[in-house]
Amino acid sequence: MKVRIHKLFDYLLSTTRETPDCFLGFSLSQSPKLSDFMDDLDPNLSLDWNGVSFQGLPMLRQRVIEQAELDGICTADDVLITAGAAEANYLCFRQLLEPGDDVVTISPGWPQVSVMAKAIGAKLTTVTCHEKDNWTLNLDALRAAVTAQTKLIFLSNPNNPTGMPFSAADLTKIAAIADHVGAWLIVDEVYAGLEWTGPRAPSIAGMYHRGISTGSVSKALGLQGLRTGWMICRDHELIMDCVILRENSSEIMNILGEHIAEIALRPERLGPALAVARAQGLKNLDVLDEFIKSEPRLSWVRPGAGLIGLARLEGEEAEPFARRLLAAPFKTFLLPGTAYDMPNHIRLGVGGGDAVRLDDGLSRLADCLRSIS
Ligand SMILES: Cc1ncc(COP(=O)(O)O)c(C=O)c1O
């Protein structure tokens, strides 16, 4: 079946012609510039791909293992470099799921799994996480949703859009639930490295033999435009199945993106880059948190990780509100919760570093809230 548009993408597409002055929805760290990498790039680098592994640059794959702290558990052979975490998820959905298969995920959550389950004809079961529980997942509810027919469980850690992180203990229990029925478990770790309340959780690929970690340099490192990500899985048949599918779309990787990603993931760069991203993200998160506390019509569960969170908007439908905020005189972008079937919430982001002019955007949001009360 054809892949159909999701409400999240529909909203983004319908607003791309707008020219907002401010963004309250930035979901990635401030992006580096090409000049930041020039000193480490070889001007004689061949842009031919021949002779390089179909799985991606071996050195980049090794860096992926190191940044995930999987050295000694997984190897570079367990990595496939992809066009972002989105392609890694896509390849897995396509190759793991057949029409009629059961898939389990959580709500609110990253919508890619529901779009793809629908297109493939798989049956999606959603376990709802509630605001009153700080958006945590009730593991008994997950256990009840997973049956002998469940082929795949999909989660993002931390969760997009709530910023709720799963701990190592949670992941151990979730892996046991998956293992009980032999299901695959994809954990989309695209926001890993931006934890505010605890340590980074271990990557699922190292915890469970059918665990698949997907990730990229897009979020914490702000390198979304490189379109360079990965999947890590110890099942080589799955890695090869994904290589075979990719041979029929983009065929091979983006060699320049991979070289830059490899440089960005070198330990001497990664540590400092993450430290800056974390300091900027936390600073913006504190500003946003204070703002929400001061606005009677807004409330939220402060995200435990990542650059986005969901705020409840009292007495107003989120989508008309987001469109009103986007129009003059406010000219400020945020994503309405309708993108996640949450019509009374708005998604707020604290990415973009200092360049994002968060204060200005928040004061426009305050004006817009006052204009409707
Ligand atoms: C949970 C999640 N997965 C995947 C993606 C896509 O990321 P990438 O740029 O690595 O494809 C996003 C982007 O917003 C995301 O939030």
Jot down its keywords:
Aspartate Aminotransferase, domain 2; 11 helices; five-stranded mixed sheet; Aspartate Aminotransferase, domain 1; binds pyridoxal-5'-phosphate; 2 domains; alpha/beta; single chain; 16% strand; 373 residues
Please give the radius of gyration in angstroms.
20 Å
Strands ordered across the widest β-sheet: 3-9-8-7-6-4-5
What percentage of residues falls in helices of 4 or more residues?
25-40%
How much is the average pLDDT? Answer: 96
Q: SSE string, helix = H, strand = E?
A: HEEHEHEHEHEHEEEHHHEEHEEEH
Largest sheet: 7 strands, mixed
Kindly estimate the percentage of residues that lie in beta strands according to DSSP: 15-25%
Give the structure's gist in a few sentences.
The chain has 373 residues and is α/β, with parallel strands linked by helices. The protein has eleven helices and 14 strands. Pyridoxal-5'-phosphate is lined by residues 27, 84-86, 110, 156, 160, 188, 190, 216, 218, 224, 229.
Provide a descriptive summary of the structure in words:
- There is one protein chain.
- The chain is an alpha/beta fold and 373 residues long.
- It folds into two domains: 7-32 and 270-372, Aspartate Aminotransferase, domain 1 (Alpha-Beta Complex), CATH 3.90.1150; 48-268, 3-Layer(aba) Sandwich (Aspartate Aminotransferase, domain 2), CATH 3.40.640.10.
- The chain is 36% helix and 16% strand.
- It is built from eleven helices and 14 strands.
- The strands form three sheets. The chain has a seven-stranded mixed β-sheet with strand order 3-9-8-7-6-4-5, sandwiched between helices.
- A hairpin with a 7-residue loop joins strand 10 and strand 11.
- Helix 3 packs parallel to helix 4.
- The longest helix has 28 residues, at 267-294.
- The N and C termini lie far apart (45 Å).
- Pyridoxal-5'-phosphate binds at residues 27, 84-86, 110, 156, 160, 188, 190, 216, 218, 224, 229.
